[in-house]
Amino acid sequence: MTFKLPLLATKESRSDDTPSVLALFGVQHPEFLTPLKRNSIAALRNIFALGNGPGHVQIVLESRQPRNSSSICNTIIFQAFWFSSTDYEAWWQSAAVSSFWNSLEEDAGIWREIMRISPRRFMHATGSTKKQGLALVPELAEVEYTDIVLQHKYWGIYRERIPDHESDDFESAFISQAQRKEMEEKEVKTIPDKKILVLRDPPSSADTSIDQVRLGRVVLPHGINNMLYVWEFQDYSQMTEQEEEIWDKHINGFVRGWMDSLDKERSKHGVLSFRNTVLTQIDDDLTSTLPESRITSQFVFYLDLAAFEYSGKSTRDHFKARMAFEQHHKSSGALGMGKGRTQLSVEVGILKRSDFEAEYIGCLDGTGLMGYKELIDAA
Q1: Tens-digit pLDDT profile for residues 309-342
Q2: Residue 7's pLDDT band (boundaries 50, 70, 90)?
């Protein structure tokens, strides 16, 4: 598989390093959309359609197993992109948007996470000419793609693809207790000297606290310095029969193991938030979602790039998945030379303290970074 790397260079060729904006807006709802939730979704659609709205919006669905049909078990997430943070601010401060957001009730079950993505601290790579992520924004549509040669496929390459890597170590002040303990057990030679945090793993489905809603607004006016945002995308919808058989037999088990570990053992990986989603549509009368289960993506926040790098290198299933994928997609492999139709993309963005903000209104405890408010306030 030939990977290609687009940089955030545009036909306008910015000289001021103005960040783009990736905004995630979530609506938490039970298995079936209620009239109130349908109204919230319709209102979000309307404000996204404003003249200074996002250049592109993609809808995904995060779900978990409900105990009953009234459980808040799903989240519709609008993944909205703005080419310029200036455009986003004009939209956010407009009367229509302010009126909607300020009128939300204390039990709304709606949240937002806003990332200002600097082109100096961003990397996007894809194995397909079909654009995804920030490359979908109209102003980025003519971005130049550069081949990544095989010699560049090594641990740490994400760091070296980020323009500011020579002048910035991208380190946060924190390391998770579980990750540090594992480093000590494995006798890692250089363990970062950072403040130790106890990160939270998600509750089990048997935990009654999983359905507890925190009424009112939890506002995070900033993030943790050098927090890492990672978005991974997989489109399996064009798979051939042979390709599907190879993935089921040799790759999928490791991929599932890797994703399950990231989600369920977040402390071990330095993960603050993990969401596994499927691309979806909402039917015309806003009564139900129409998921496309073969087009998936993950939204992950790590303490920093170092936590992400260590997690990838030290986790068996991630290593096995990567090796199996490359074995079958290399030129001499069964899926090499264009035979493989799976489309994979990844984006990473390093967020300085002021590059992130979030707000959770009447959301489930544990939503996003809501549970880390005290830590973030003090950071």
Answers
A1: 999 989 999 989 988 988 898 878 888 877 888 8
A2: very low
**Dihedral sign, CA of 303, 62, 281, 279?**
positive
Query: Pseudo-torsion of CA 59, 60, 62, 66, nearest 10°?
Result: 70
Give the closest residue to 158 by CA, choosing from 115, 121, 194: 121
The total of other beta-carbon atoms located within 10 Å of residue 320's CB is 17
What b/e sequence results for 277-298 when a residue is b if at least 16 CB atoms lie within 10 Å of its CB, and e otherwise?
A: bbbbebeeebeebebeeebbbb
Q: Which of 271, 226, 298, 240 is nearest to 79 (CA)?
A: 298
Q: Which residue has the tokens 């990332």?
A: 115
Residues in the chain: 379
pTM: 0.93
Could you give the CA distance from residue 249 to residue 247 in angstroms, rounded to a whole number? 5
127, two tokens: 């194995």
Q: Tokens 């250049």 sit at which residue?
A: 55
Whether the Cβ atoms of residue 85 and residue 41 lie closer than 8 Å to each other: no
Q: How far apart are CA 63 and CA 66, in angstroms?
A: 9
pLDDT tens sequence across 267-289 = 999 999 999 999 999 988 888 88
